[in-house]
TrEMBL record:
Residues 184-219 are annotated as: Disordered. This is Dynein assembly factor 3 C-terminal domain-containing protein. Pfam families: DUF4471. Transmembrane segments: none annotated. Residues 1-163 form the Dynein assembly factor 3 C-terminal domain. It comes from the Eukaryota. InterPro entries: DNAAF3 (IPR039304), DNAAF3_C (IPR028235). One of its GO terms (biological process) is motile cilium assembly. Coiled coil: none annotated.
Amino acid sequence: DIATGPFVAFGIEADDDSLLRTSNGQPVKTAGEITQHNVTELFREVAAWGRPRTAQGNPEQVHQDQDGRPERAALAPEFFTVHFLPLGSAQTLHHKSCYKERFQLLYVACGMVHLLSPDLGATVAPGGRLVVELARYLVDLRQEQLQGFASRVEELARAAGFTLLPQARPLETFARFHKAPDSTCGTGSAVDSMTPLPDVPTPPLEDLSQALEGGTPPP
């Protein structure tokens, strides 16, 4: 669970105390059940974004105005829509003019670093930010492997047109970059020439290393 998640992020704590109840010293609910509850609640909050608190949990709920007439809950100006895309779209989004240099923030998890390419970087607007999760919380990685992963991330980001932001403390959990207004993405050959990560002994981490080399992403 620590290596593959998402139970570390969503399956440990919950706002519903009944999910954390124990019997004879053992949890009654599994980490998977807690994760399902927490993720479902997140989606409910997203669906109710910008609506009055009384309308949250039911996006179609209506209210009555002062004259007693039904009135649909007003949306906040920052109303947004979430789109779920297949992983293969990361290399093709920039072909559509509506997505080229459109986004202000790009977040890449450590298991998806192989998707960070000049094609994906082309969808970020000049001045936009890139945040990449590093491998600090993957088990059985030596310090030199963690440093090699961080160096690899920086090379991929630089080839995609990003520059490392100055950090007050050493890179450990996240690497943060920005895209200069006049930046141009690198070429595929620049990515191919980068130094690969050192071999990783355990199976899950070998899958991650293969993914960083452009292979099939780990499950």
